[in-house]
Design a protein that fits this description.
With about 300 residues, the chain is an alpha/beta fold. The chain contains ten helices and nine strands. The strands form two sheets. Strands 7-6-5-8-9 form a five-stranded parallel sheet, covered by helices on one side. The two termini are about 15 Å apart. Bound molecules: N-carbamoyl-L-aspartate (NCD). The site of N-carbamoyl-L-aspartate (NCD) has 10 residues, from helix 2 and helix 6.
């Protein structure tokens, strides 16, 4: 039985296969309508979500399966003090596969110890978010036709942004990748990711505070929300929340074929005037997220 806790649980070849399946689903959706007939997906969301939960549910429904679950800790027995371990032990009796989001780093790992069905990490605290990364990779691949030889700027909350952590892990396995890490000092990429990922894979990277200076070199600009819910101190959040606001004027020195990604939800970090620029791809990421989650569900359930 396979789980997906980290993007590194998948080999590069498996990621290529998931991308190929997602593209086939887009081209031939009718071929997939009944692939998961009688299969059930449980979505256990102990933390808020719009896209991730609904795209998992839409993915399973599009495969002919059904869904059950909860969308907040307060509507589950976790509010009575039940452990993740017990919740999972129970829910794995009711479902064939589980997608789980939790505010604590490592909670999905704990879930795998007791689950009788595959568990997918749909975001654990400030740690990882591998299925958002699959959506990001599919978007980059569909735009550039490749996942190598790219300069990728990651901008905003690199400390708490789990989508950033997973994307860096994923891209570190491709060749010719350069990272430009754009953040205020307080929100820099954690040292453990520099050591365990960037240094380990020998990646080229620079850190800067200036989005303007980084802009001309970038092929991909990955904007992120400052993660309010992970701050200990409201004053710090208020001081840092508008560190970067991308608008059309700031794109004037960007490459014409650069793409702008954002896992969403956005707050202020991308002004709405950017939405109609052809480089804005964040709503395409949403579309791709459902397709790649369909491919992932099929893979983990062993359905061809
Ligand atoms: C992200 C998350 O939950 O980490 N959202 C998402 O899943 N698309 C990003 C965020 O909340 O800022």
């Amino acid at each position: 039985m396979r789980h997906l806790l980290s993007i590194l649980d998948l080999s590069v070849e498996e990621i290529d296969q998931l991308i190929a399946t997602a593209e086939d689903i887009l081209a031939n959706p009718d071929d997939y309508r009944e692939k998961c007939k009688y299969k059930k997906l449980a979505t256990l969301f102990f933390e808020p979500s719009t896209r991730t939960r609904l795209s998992f549910e839409s993915a399973m429904l599009s495969l002919g399966g059904s869904v059950l679950g909860f969308s907040s800790a307060s509507s589950s027995s976790s509010s009575k003090g039940e452990s993740v371990s017990d919740t999972i032990r129970v829910v794995s009796n009711y479902s064939d596969i589980i997608a789980m989001r939790h505010p604590k780093e490592g909670a999905p790992l704990v879930a795998t110890f007791r689950s009788e069905v595959p568990v997918i990490n749909a975001g654990d605290g400030g740690h990882n978010h591998p299925t958002q990364t699959l959506a990001d990779l599919l978007t980059i691949k569909r735009k550039f036709g490749r996942l190598n030889n790219l300069t990728i700027g990651l901008c905003g909350d690199l400390k708490f942004g789990r989508t950033v952590h997973s994307l860096i892990q994923a891209m570190s396995r491709y060749t010719g990748i350069k990272f430009v890490l754009i953040s205020p000092d307080e929100l820099k990429l954690p040292d453990y990711i520099k050591k365990d990922v960037l240094d380990k894979f020998g990646m080229e990277y620079v850190e800067t505070k200036s989005l303007e200076e980084a802009m001309p070199s970038l092929d991909v600009l990955y904007m992120t929300r400052v993660q309010q819910e992970r701050f200990f101190n409201e004053d710090d959040y208020v001081r840092l929340k508008d560190s970067y606001i991308l608008n059309l004027a700031k794109l004037s020195n960007a490459k014409k074929d650069m793409i702008i990604l954002h896992p969403l939800p956005r707050v202020n970090e991308i002004s709405v005037d950017v939405d109609d620029d052809p480089r804005a791809c964040y709503f395409e990421q949403v579309k791709n997220g459902r397709l790649i989650r369909m491919a992932l569900i099929l893979k983990l359930l062993g359905i061809n």
